Amino acid sequence: MNSKVSMIEDILRGKNFKLTSSRKEIIRIFLGSDKHLKPEDVYELVKAKGISLPTVYRTIDILKRNQIIEEISIGKHRYYELKIFSGKKLHIHFKCDVCGEIFDIDDQKLVMDLIDITSNVESEYKVEVEDLLMVLHGVCEKCKNKTII
Question: Model pTM?
Answer without folding.
Answer: 0.75
